[in-house]
Structure formats: C-alpha cells, structure tokens
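Re: How this chain folds, sequence and tokenised backbone to follow
Notation: Tokens come from a learned vocabulary of local backbone shapes, not from coordinates.
Start of record: The labelled sequence and token lines come straight after this line.
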Amino acid sequence: MPQSSRYSDERVEKLLAELVNVLEENQTPTDLSLMVLGNMVTNLINTSVAPAQRRVLARSFADALQSSVRED
C-alpha cells in the first residue's frame, strides 16, 4: 500500500516483523493467518472508527489491499 504515512518505515517494518514472527512461531497456515488478520482489521474498525465512517474506511482498505496484490 504505497502511500505517504505519518509513521516511519522503521516503525511499520518492526510491527510487521513482530506480527509475522507470531504467525511463524505458531506455524499458522495461510488461510488461518488471513482469517486472524481479517478479524483484527474488523475489530479495529468496529471499535476505533465512528459508525458513520466504518464502511467508507473498510472500502478504502479493501481497495488499497486489492491494488497492492501482485499478479506474478
């Protein structure tokens, strides 16, 4: 999702590495990893975003995800 961010690349990469590490340590298969990450996104949207903005944010997130998936 190449966009400018208020967070440093280092901070993003550190969190990503930690999340990947947890999934790898638990030998989590891809489908379960996607389920867990999807549930985490849903929970964050439902608990941290105003109800009127949830669908807009979810659509924006889905669009950004779709555009970042490679076709190779």
